[in-house]
Amino acid sequence: MDRSAPEKLILVNREPGGIAFVTINRPKSLNSLTKSMMTDLAQAFKALDRDESIRVIVLSGSGRAFCSGVDLTAAEDVFKGDVKDLESDTVAQMERCRKPIIGAIGGFAVTAGFEIALACDILVAAKGAKFMDTHARFGIFPSWGLSQKLSRIIGPNKAREVSLAAVPLTAEIAERLGFVNYVVEEGELLKKAREIAVAIVKNNQDLVLRYKSVINDGLKLDLGHALALEKERAHEYYDGMTKEQFKKMQKFIAGRSSKKPSSKM
């Protein structure tokens, strides 16, 4: 008797409207990540970044957790592997991805799952969701950015508590601290993520990609250099525009504000 093919652990669903849904699909193990899953997830983001039909990516986990971290039964395989291999590095590929990534967090996002959430551009969390950093509890050194990114978002003192004491960060507190954008009922999680994705899709795709890039690249710099970066890219953008593109922009703005005084460029 033929057995059905093994269930895919990383699901990718491309929708006609330009939104892709990526799902970590190992619910019986609370979506813990094996080495091969991490590679598949990295490659999924790489492929979606190259796919010109995709404009926004929504990442979620199936079942009761977003992602409970690395599968520790394969810890040595994961942690002693080639950590410089960017092709199989999930977070590196997420950070390289030009498309906006919306994380839909239900249940737990633990350690590596927390770091994957930190690599998203926008976060929606279900009520009761929790972010946990267990690096210090299990003697695992962070390598996907948790030690550096979290303190820059929620402040160093709170980040130290979350990481050094392994204290859960609830979705509600994370929202107040500016880490999570929205906290919604569990049944509304993907609906809210889709709502944000649709709003992004409606905008100028080229500018969305450029805007995400300048925000994320600027965060790595001090304010003075970040402002200089914005100015440099703005000049580059406008210098590359043709007269026809300027006319098209003016026509679009005039059409949007036809019931108001006309805009002056």
Summary?
The protein is an alpha/beta fold.
Structure keywords:
46% helix; 14% strand; alpha/beta; disordered C terminus; six-stranded mixed sheet
Mind explaining what this structure looks like?
- This protein has 265 residues and is an alpha/beta fold.
- Helices cover 46% and strands 14% of the residues.
- It contains twelve helices and nine strands.
- It has helices at residues 35-50, 75-79, 90-96, 112-118, 135-138, 146-154, 156-164, 171-176, 189-201, 205-218, 223-239, 243-256, and strands at 10-14, 19-24, 56-61, 101-105, 108-110, 122-126, 130-132, 169-170, 182-184.
- The chain has a six-stranded mixed beta sheet, with helices on both faces. Strands 5-7-8 form a three-stranded mixed beta sheet.
- A hairpin with a 4-residue loop joins strand 1 (10-14) and strand 2 (19-24).
- Helix 1 (35-50) packs parallel to helix 3 (90-96) and helix 6 packs across helix 7 (156-164).
- The N and C termini lie far apart (71 Å).
